[in-house]
Amino acid sequence: xxxxxxxxxxxxxxxxxxNDFYNRNSDxxxxxxxxxxxxNKQYDLAFHIGKPIDHPLLKTCRLxxxxxxxxxxxxxxxxxxxxxxxxYTAIYTKEHIDIPxxxxxxxxPLTPNDLPYVLANYDNPGNDEKHLLERIEEGMLGLxxxxxxxxxxxxxxxxxxxxxxxxxxxRHKGYAYFLEATLIQSLLNEKKLAYCQIATTNxxxxxxxxxxxxxxxxxxxxxxxxxx
Length: 228
Description:
This protein is α+β, with helices and mostly antiparallel strands. It is built from seven helices and eleven strands.
């Protein structure tokens, strides 16, 4: 378990997502009463929550996530990072979710053989073969209709749900809700945290997760990197 400081004691949901990241083979790098910095060496990814700090790790790692706008702005102004991607963070805090009965679709785990389909349809940062293959191997779900793959969902390396995709011809049929509800219940069954991050401009996804009754954190989070 990640140690709590004064800030995290006052913000239990923020602690929940940071602790989830810590439990994914990450290390506590720095902590005082108002700031926590955790780092995952495998993915070269730092997660910062709280007040801004000047730490050498933040100048070298591949990706940084923070809820501190001041740190986001500082890293951009110093050209330490050249790109930023603001997101809303939302957590499913209930113990169960109702999965709507749909008789025309099923789910199955994706396999490496499904990589070409995922590559062709996932166009966000991180669309590269190595990264997506790792996500498939950790456990992505595919949506199947008439023996044909028509969508998918998975877990990002930091622990958030994502990758949600439904073929254009199959949208507005309740499939996205069904697929994500299935993943949420699977995570709950395994006593894992079900949470996601949504681009601040993605109104459709925001509405979907409000329909799910996710709890949205107050702070905007920022993903920082180079050359997106």
